[in-house]
Amino acid sequence: MEGLAACFEDLKDPRTGNAGQHDLDEIMVIALCTVLCGGQYASDMELFAKEKERFLRQFLKLEKGVPSHDTFSRVFRLLDPEQFRACFQKFMGRFSQACPCRAVAPQSSGVLPARRASA
Predict the structure, then answer these.
(1) Residues 6+ apart with CB under 8 A from 80
(2) What global pTM score does this model have?
(3) pLDDT digit string (tens) for 37-46?
């Protein structure tokens, strides 16, 4: 969790007041886990979090419970796209280092096999 949080430390939380009751880092972790498992939408993120809540609580506090799909939608609508892009690229760099056997294509939704060196 610390490594992921470090990737997104420059991402400013755009929410104010009561709208910020869920931790932004936790929202990002759930969103990234959902996408890595094939989810695409805010409703997928809520469903993933509900289905995997027991697992997620091993490393997330989820003090206010699982964020709703409205929360995920609102957060991603309000995030600064350039800040998010920079943070996501930092995450993908670390992710690809941790998974050297697969190459992730950042401009597509697929995972491509790593290229083999010519013999």
Answers:
(1) 11, 12, 14
(2) 0.80
(3) 999 999 999 9
Of 31, 25, 19, which Cα lies nearest the Cα of 3? Answer: 25
Please give the single-letter amino acid code of residue 38: G
Backbone angles phi, psi at 92, to 5 degrees: -65, -35
Six-digit token string for 55:
């697992």
The CA R_g of the chain, rounded to the nearest whole Å, is: 15
Burial 67-104 (b: 16+ CB within 10 A, else e): bbeebbbbbeeebeeeebeebbebbeeebeeeeeeeee
- Check: CB of residue 91 under 8 Å from CB of residue 31: no
Q: What is the DSSP letter of 107?
A: T
- Quick check: helix, strand or coil at residue 25? helix
CA pseudo-torsion sign 98, 104, 110, 112: negative
